[in-house]
Design goal:
The chain is mainly β and about 170 residues long. The protein is built from 3 helices and 13 strands; from the N terminus they run βαββββαβββαβββββ.
């Protein structure tokens, strides 16, 4: 895609450490639309496990604007933002398909939601990890978002646990 046909595109802005909320607020105040996909992360702090919403891409937020308007230059000077990700002298658009796919997987608050109603017997494709692109059958869906799948590997069925976010249902 050349930069000139980018009416309104998504770009990546690098955020200062722990400033994603501040950056989002300040960009919104200036009229920019932002998208910050979040996922649940469990961390151990002082011997206790805490689950919190963390950015899926730590240190980055998606920002939408029209490159032909000079207003994008203000993003770089926004409080909480380090700079727009650029190659050359202009910000580089993120493939729209990537942003759309991410948005489809998130709720209104930007939180990643598990793929819709996965159930035993469903045929899925693994999307990441050592078994990416393998086709498997869901055997069991655990409450902790882990899914047990059965895969045919070298003539035998192997049972593997995967995260709900790393499978994609095969369209019927």
């Amino acid at each position: 895609m050349n930069h000139h046909d980018c009416r309104s595109c998504w770009f990546l802005a690098q955020i200062k450490p722990n400033s994603h909320r501040i950056a989002e607020r300040n960009l919104a105040r200036q009229g920019f639309r932002t998208f910050l996909p979040l996922h649940e992360e469990t961390k151990r702090a002082r011997g206790k496990f805490r689950t919190q919403q963390s950015p899926l891409f730590p240190g980055y937020v998606f920002v939408e604007f029209d490159l032909s308007h000079g207003s994008w230059r203000t993003v770089n000077s926004t409080y909480g933002i380090t700079r727009l990700v650029s190659f050359g002298n202009a910000p580089t658009p993120v493939p729209l398909d990537l942003v759309n796919q991410l948005m489809l997987r998130c709720n209104r608050d930007g939180r990643l939601v598990p793929p819709k109603l996965l159930k035993p017997g469903d045929q899925v494709t693994l999307t990441k990890g050592p078994f990416a692109n393998f086709v498997a059958t869901i055997e069991q869906v655990a409450p902790d978002r882990r899914i047990w799948v059965l895969m045919d590997i070298m003539g035998g069925q192997t049972r593997v646990a995967v995260d709900a976010t790393s499978v994609q249902t095969i369209r019927q």
